């Protein structure tokens, strides 16, 4: 069965995507919490997590972190790091769960609409012309690579004399 031929109501697709991303995000959070808890077994990490500076940072993350968690779902590749950091810094569940829920809803809405349409479009192009589909993919990868290279070169500041 071709997944592109699956005709489910949009709400079912959106709900399934929400459940998937919610499970993944929360698993990442708990993995981060486990990593953060292991600091007690490492003297250098223990000194860090007991410092006043670290506690101030934790308070800042706990206060401002929830919007960062939600917005991270609008990016590609960042949400995993943010959820891991939220767990490692032991963001309170009262802050984390609403933030991750909002983020997961946004992600599911985007992927069940624009993402799903884009996936179907690429699949339809591939059925008509595999060469065109792979060429479009190669152009997209080249453009993204060029963008990253240009941005990184712009970030490097020459040493001032």
Counting copies of identical and different chains, the oligomeric state is single chain
Order of helices and strands: HHHHHH
The helix fraction, in percent, is over 70%
Q: Could you tell me how far the N terminus lies from the C terminus, measured between alpha carbons in angstroms? A: 65 Å
Overall strand count: 0
Approximately what portion of the residues adopt beta-strand conformation?
Answer: under 5%
Largest sheet: none
Structural class: mainly alpha
Shape: globular
Describe this structure as you would to a colleague:
It is built from six helices and no strands. The longest helix has 36 residues, at 93-128. Helix 3 (52-72) runs antiparallel to helix 4 (79-88), helix 3 (52-72) runs parallel beside helix 5 (93-128) and helix 5 (93-128) packs across helix 6 (130-155). The protein is mainly α and 161 residues long.
What would a concise description of this structure say?
With 161 residues, the protein is mainly alpha-helical. The protein has six helices and no strands.
Features:
6 helices; single chain; mainly alpha; 161 residues; 0% strand
What's the layout of helices and strands?
Blueprint: H1 10-37, H2 43-50, H3 52-72, H4 79-88, H5 93-128, H6 130-155
Helix pairs in contact: 1-4, 1-5, 3-4, 3-5, 5-6
